[in-house]
Amino acid sequence: MNKKEYRRLYELESSYWWYIGRREIIKSLLAKISLNKNSHILEIGCGTGGNLEILSQFGEVTGLDNSPEAIEFCQKRGFRNCLLGDAENINFPEQSFDLIAALDLLEHINDEQKVLKEIHRALKDDGYFLIMVPAYQFLWSEHDEALHHKRRYALPGLRDKLLKANFDIVSASYFIFFTALAFFIYRILRKIFSDGKKKENQKKTDYLLLPNFLNNFLISLLKLEAFLSKYITFPFGISIACIAKNSIPINDE
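== Methyltransferase type 11 domain-containing protein ==
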């Protein structure tokens, strides 16, 4: 992600519907598992720190990111326990954490299985893994390129990757369901009418500034999804969220 996008992300995370609503979903998902104030939590790819506050409600949180700019923004939010590091080589001993969160991280990684294996190693035997990723490769756009994504996902494929890495699936669902159709149309139209010749540093994300009433309405929809997720799963959406539990140890042989 370029420096301008980091600053933009930092500014948007406190007010933009996507980030506020996503935190509501995270809170709803974490309420399903056994954590307490002494639980050790790691967010890999913590970015500018927008999720650290909600994670800190469930335990002692540490942030990890490979960008010095991201760590600086986390510190501006008051989170000092944020470290520069690599998802492929988590610099913590085995079985260090009760929960590891990778929230829109895996799509940035070349070797997904290596990262999943490393997460498995750093989790306690009964630890949990919370993962969120963008859905559907056909929605690939300039937004993904601006954020340096490698891919988007479908739920069956993500489930298979987690099982291959020796995780048990606790819950898995699409999210951003109620606005999905409008989002599908917007992405497809943007792809049709966009200039595909833009330079890398000219590509921008889809974070459109919205009138307050619309921004608040979209937040309300995601709060509703967070509530409903206690009882149902969604058949489609523009994001996927899974909670997985550490299973049998990985055999390196």
